[in-house]
Design a protein that fits this description.
It contains 12 helices and 8 strands. It is of the alpha/beta class.
Amino acid sequence: MSSFPENNRTWQILHGANKGNYAVGAYNCYNTDGVMAVIRAAENKKSPAIIQLFPWTLHFQGKQFVKFVIEYAHNASVPIAVHLDHCIQSADVDLALSLSVPFDSIMVDASTLSPEENIRTCKSYVERATALGICIEAEMGRMEGGEDGLPHVDMETILTKPDEAETFVRETGVHFLAPSFGNIHGAYGPGGAEKAWDLERLKKIHEALPGLPLALHGTHPVSDELFLESMKCGMRKINLNRTVRDGYTQFVAENAGKLELTVLSMRGVEIYTKGVERMMDVLGSSGKA
């Protein structure tokens, strides 16, 4: 029987993507419709997948909802991991590490701290998480923008330095790295992600960390072609939120109050599922489970 981290579900999914030269979507879910859509899409497409929850879920929907999501995902017919995204507050990491049914992986976001404090913080959580069989993702550098629970950053983006990436990973022991290379949370400015992303920097980060799965944040709006370019630079975990959710959100907004709630939910999940399936095809994970 394999030992940690090889027996960890997120680790298995992302290293499988590394070997197969594809990427896996990590889909941010806010309710049962989103969870059902990801699981149904993964089973339909025979694709591995990662369901992502925010710390908001722990506080608003609670531990029992998280337990439901993890058990639902782990009982799917294909490999699906459940990941806690962007834990900025230490209390949120502590809460996540205390769950009786644990997450497969957690992103510790200490990027607002100094580089030295980021390393110390990530290392301490890696040590605790490892004892529980949980993998850790960390952000090196800093990404602008705002997402659920994330601060808007007015300062100039701090980009990941390729020559420091290997040291960061070695000293912290993190299992996955989310680099900052011009990607931002929220809307991109004129020229979009194509202008903002420094793919040459990303390529150098990948070369400094061969074999380590990289995680892509800041993916809306991003073209299919740019996703493929990022995969050539080691991106294996692709965080997806509005890219797959906007069709569902629009449908619900237009039909709430017009359709019975049961019909609204069923049709909404169908639309959501199709959005997830399309990205599984784009990322090349379809048929890989």
